[in-house]
Amino acid sequence: MFWQSSGSRFDSDFEDWTGVLYTSRAASGQGMSTFLGVQGISSFLEVLQFRFLPVEFFVLFGLIWVNADVFYRVMQPYAGMEDPSPATENLLLDYPSCAPGIIFIKAASNKHWRVALFSLLALLSTVPPILATGVFISTPSANGYVISIAPLNFWVCFAILGIYLICTFLVRPTPAYRMPRNVVGLGDVLSYCYASRILDDLGPDKKPIFSAQDIGDERVHLESRIHLAKKQYQLGMYLGKGGRRHFGFDVAVRNDNSGKQAYVTKLDPGFGLRGLSGTWYWRRPRFVKDDV
Length: 292
Description:
Shape: elongated
Strand order of the largest sheet: 3-6-7
Structural class: alpha+beta
């Protein structure tokens, strides 16, 4: 039995919220309680409090998960270049084009936990609003509507809400996922590599790595060339074609015009909240190395 009968703390608190007095009665042979309203409420309160608000609450959470899903799908390749890493950890990831459900399996197998978590939450975000419609059961009466609670739906929604509140703390991206500008199209991707020599790099056969060599070449041929090159890529301040540093991604180590090795300088984007500049909680962006 979820709540005891008359005089319980639940009855008193719930009456203050709804303006309806409740008593509980054990369902015969079912081991759970039903709640019998003894005072009616208006049609407006019935629709607003017991139908619209519970569903809208879960819908708002669903919007958060969908946006987080899109964000982490797009930004995972850049997070994979926080340190020098092979192309399988960054450039060859295809999360934005994966179907829901499949991306969860791929991300989990690659140990990209944020992508896997928010893709799963976004996929299942339509279920809680449906369950929320069955938490409160309204029955027409002479005085308006009488409201009762379905205990099973209530506790399921309560558990889901607890999971949602825990996951909310993971929505804020870590420094590895934060960029100077959002990546929403091809132009944003090119802005991070327009001055690099990544498109001029040659493979073992002395031909460009990121270039189809035959009119009949398919995606597998391009990916094979990238694998065979065995290069590592990093996000940061790279040495561009004109000899100046630019923020974006490039091969982690390459030779400059004088033949010396040039490293991509890692950039720490900092951490903090707007309005807290100058406090202990604020950390300004900085270069991890001082060779820029």
